[in-house]
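Pipeline run #58 for the internal structure catalog. This entry was flagged by the ingest filter as a single-chain record with no existing model, so it goes straight to prediction. Upstream metadata was stripped on purpose; only the residue string is passed forward. Reviewer on rotation: M.T. Logging verbosity set to normal.
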Amino acid sequence: QVQLVESGGGLVQAGGSLRLSCAASGRFLSRFGMGWFRQAPGKEREFVAAIRWSGGSTYYADSVKGRFTVSRDNDKNTVYLQMISLKPEDSAVYYCAAQYDPFTTDLRVRSGAYDYWGQGTQVTVSS
């Protein structure tokens, strides 16, 4: 069992920055990959970024490449999503999720392939 708690959301002006955190607890975290997803009202949940606990390989959606950075702190069991140059279209509820290995290319972008989810944190970017 893995528990995930997100924090760090809020209201920011376009061009601003936010850092989201996802605190994880549970066993065998190193066997999981961690994903960030977002969901805006009336839209499907979409993949944003992902990282492997072991090794730290990172993956990004094209829409956020160069603006978002995913990282992890193994000592704190926390995954971060640093967001810069935010746009109004980045507004959504952001979720972190954990997926047990093998965390392949096709699986890590599919929300249905994740095993555990946090409660979400709201990000609102004003124009």
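catalog note: The mean pLDDT is 95.
catalog note: The two ends are 40 Å apart (CA to CA).
status: ready for reviewer M.T.
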